[in-house]
Automatic annotation (TrEMBL):
One of its GO terms (molecular function) is 3-dehydroquinate dehydratase activity. It catalyses: 3-dehydroquinate = 3-dehydroshikimate + H2O. The gene is aroQ. InterPro entries: DHquinase_II, DHquinase_II_CS, DHquinase_II_sf. Substrate binds at residues 81, 87, 94, 111-112, 121. The active site is at 30 (proton acceptor), 110 (proton donor). Keywords: Amino-acid biosynthesis, Aromatic amino acid biosynthesis, Lyase. CDD domains: DHQase_II. This is 3-dehydroquinate dehydratase. The record marks 25 as: Transition state stabilizer. The keyword Amino-acid biosynthesis applies. Belongs to the type-II 3-dehydroquinase family.
Amino acid sequence: MEATHKGTRNVIVVNGPNLGRLGVREPDVYGSDDLAALTRLCEGWGSELGLHVEVRQSDDEAEMIGWMHRAVDEQTPVVMNPAAFTHYSYGLSDAAHMVTDAGLPLMEVHISNPSARDSFRKYSVISPVATGTITGMGFYGYRLALEAIAHLLGA
Ligand code: DQA
């Protein structure tokens, strides 16, 4: 297990498929800043909130499921942008459910507002098992999610 920083809680921020392409992927929808910029923002917001934030990205459903299992084992709260897995991955939904079932906060974040887009984006298999969902706020949504976690942890 990664060492907990003195006086802080570890939080993982996990990003699903194609979010490694932020900055070049549909900048009109997702903005022109890349994943490295998002990572720096999340780390900075985390330290303001007394949270040690580790940002991850994967295009691999199995890897993301494994991260949820580890979050349960290590008692780590989660911010998750499941990207396209949002709309169809029952495997990731079940894994996310294990996190909230373990009493850990799991905040779902979307940079865009999926409800205002294609019809296949209107349903999330993650929302029913998440602690809360933030959509349509750009990268700032991650800050709101981290604030929610800090609030829930009483940090
Ligand atoms: C997204 C919205 C999803 O519908 C899409 O598949 C993504 C990104 C968002 O952050 O707005 O990859 O999760």
